[in-house]
Amino acid sequence: MSAFWAVLWKDLAIEWRSRDRFAAMAVFAALVVLVLYFAAPPSLDAAQNGHVPGLLWVAYLFAGVLGMNRAFAAELENDALSALALAPVDRGFLFLGKAAASFLILLVVQALAAVLFALAFSLNLWPVAPQLAAVAALGALGISCAGTLLAAIAVRTRYREVMLPLLLLPLLVPVLLGAVRATTALLTIGSLPWPAVQLLIVADGVYAIVSFLCFEYVLDE
Amino acid sequence: MKRWKQATAATLALLGTWWAWAVWNAPLDSVQGVIQKILYVHPPLAFAAYAGFIGTALAGALFLARGEERLDRFAAASAEVGVVFCTLMLVTGPIWAKGTWGKWWTWDPRLTVTLLLYLTYVAYLLLRGFTEGSERAARFAAVYGILGAALIPLNYYAIELFGSRALHPDNLQRGSLGEGMGLPFLLGVLATLAAFAFLLVRRFELGELRALRAERLAHAALREDA
Predict the structure, then answer these.
(1) For a designed S-S bond to B45, which of A22, A109, A180, B89 qualifies (C-beta 3.0 to 4.6 A apart)?
(2) In 10 A of CB A72, how many CB atoms?
(3) Which residue of A has its CA nearest to B155?
(4) Is B165 helix (H, G, I), strand (E, B) or coil?
(5) Which residues in chain A are contacts of B119 at CB distance < 8 A?
(6) In whole angstroms, how far apart are CA B215 and each of B1, B111, B226?
């Protein structure tokens, strides 16, 4: 368990000192919001804006994938990945530590992106902010768990930046479905639909458990 | 081995011919007409595709547990053949859909999940191709195969939860096929599964031969250095 705290502290400390991963994710999320505004502008007729909550999740998903691509970037230097693999600790907790760090960084980026999105699409998110934060956190959990496992795989392949989205995006569809449904309900009727939240919880559980158990097989010396 | 292959190829040819004859003579559906005969092709391809993907996941899991490389070669073969059958299924499905529903594609639960599965296993094959080191590729592919298979029930649950109008017919109930359609359908399933098994074994053998060749090359290189 101390391995979990050690890895979490290490990743957050590195991020705090350089802030490069956070900066890249935040700027990228802002650019995606901009592109989406021009590509799928909101209509003046509110009834035609059913697609808008989905656009927020496009921004979250792309920023998340970009962030996960950088998750093991620090470990590539000086063969630190092998050192991590050789550490005499339960690799499941190494996984949890890295996933938790990615989760926290993604949460901050999501908050920032939500503010920009609300500005761009003229939405008032304050009334539903706590519930939106909960949905965003559940989505970020799924992205972080599946993303950390697949990032550990992708970092050892050729074309690693391309490989991660290829591997991750098909698997994140249940998370996307649940998150978009929940966000749409929040923005239209103001309450969280239980089936969507249930789906998010189940999907996160599946990713977390499978990733925790399989992480030892992807971390090699 | 050669005799086994000849016998299987002959059986497959006979089964295929009998199936084609049965399909030719099958009664025409009163509503859909001749396009309904894709029923004898499309669902059997689906069975084979799913068998391939589940085989990949199971073989991958066993490989992680036992470490036997043959299991990994079987998983790779199963994924490749499964992707081939899935491609055929995704081609015949829209042809049938256009003829009966009037559109090439819908986001019906079964179609969506199958498409996601197809993309997952294409990514699996890319992962195998882009990973250097066969032992590492085997481990990575096994983990991804397990994740992919775990997503099958999850995706069905996810998409059913949101109750999109299901255009795709539900699982066939006993007796729901019309008069005279049972035999060609059964033959279709048998022939397709036999073709799947045949291709799977040939592809597995190819993997085994490649591994043997790599081993011999490695031994030859060692002897040269010595």
Answers:
(1) B89
(2) 22
(3) A174
(4) coil
(5) 170
(6) 22, 43, 17
Domains of chain B, by residue range, sit at 35-170+182-225
User: A174 at the B interface (CB within 8 A)?
Assistant: yes
Whole-model pTM: value is 0.88
Q: In a structure prediction context, what are the per-residue pLDDT tens digits for chain B, which is 226 residues long?
A: 567 777 778 888 888 888 887 877 777 766 767 777 777 888 899 999 999 999 999 999 999 999 899 999 999 999 999 999 999 999 998 888 888 888 888 887 788 888 999 999 999 999 999 988 788 999 999 999 999 998 888 888 887 777 555 666 655 555 566 666 778 888 888 889 989 998 999 999 999 999 999 889 989 988 887 6
Chain B residues within 8 A of A208 when measuring between CB atoms:
none
Token code pair at residue B102: 């009037």
Inter-axis angle of helices B109-130 and B69-100, nearest 10: 140
Distance CA B192, CA B194 (A): 5
Cα separation, B53 vs A133, whole angstroms: 37
B124-143 burial by CB neighbour count: b if 16+ within 10 A, else e? bebbbebbeebeebbbbbbb
Q: What one-letter code names the amino acid at B24?
A: W
| Rounded-to-5 percentages of helix, strand, coil across chain A | 85, 0, 15
Q: For B29, phi and psi rounded to 5 degrees? A: -70, 140
